[in-house]
Amino acid sequence: MRRPDPSARWRAASAALLTVALAVGAHALADGPPSGAGVTLAALLAGTLGALSASTQRARGTPELIALLAVGQILGHLVLAVSHSHGAVACEPTPLMVGAHAAAVAVGALLIAAGDRLCRALSTAVRALTAPSSWPPEAVVVETTTSDQPLQSMLLLAASVSHRGPPVGVLT
Questions:
Q1: Residue 169 burial (CB count, 10 A)
Q2: 152 lies in a domain?
Q3: Domain presence at residue 99
Q4: Which of 14, 23, 56, 142 is the most exposed place for a label (fewest CB within 10 A)?
Q5: pTM
Q6: With 60 as the cut, is the pLDDT of residue 87 above it?
Q7: Is the residue at 36 inside a domain?
Q8: Each residue of 134-147: pLDDT tens digit?
């Protein structure tokens, strides 16, 4: 069984919050505060995109997060434009608005990807520090076998010992 991604929830929450904050904030600046229904729909959309980013391993990288957040901005703009009654001019994206959204999406994706890597590194370090250890190490049992042949070192030791003693006259 594969270990769950420790950073998936953080990545999902970050992607969802950034999507809804950028969409609602940009819409509020451009055309006034959106309706409650529009904000609710944008939050539902952002939650769906966040869940999508958590459910796939591909959403870890910066290019994938940029694509996901860009789709979130486009869909968020459409949801808020439909739920809010304003003129046709306000619904058309200006080059400045598109550039601001693109920069915010790129920076947001970089920050989410960096946070994802940091979260995975920290969780790996914490898991390594808190894992049950086998300290002190268990005693190693060494099995010995007997043999009918003596060891070579014992034969060399026996050959080097002299069996000759002092003369008998010296001791009396």
A1: 6
A2: no
A3: yes
A4: 142
A5: 0.64
A6: no
A7: yes
A8: 667 777 888 877 77
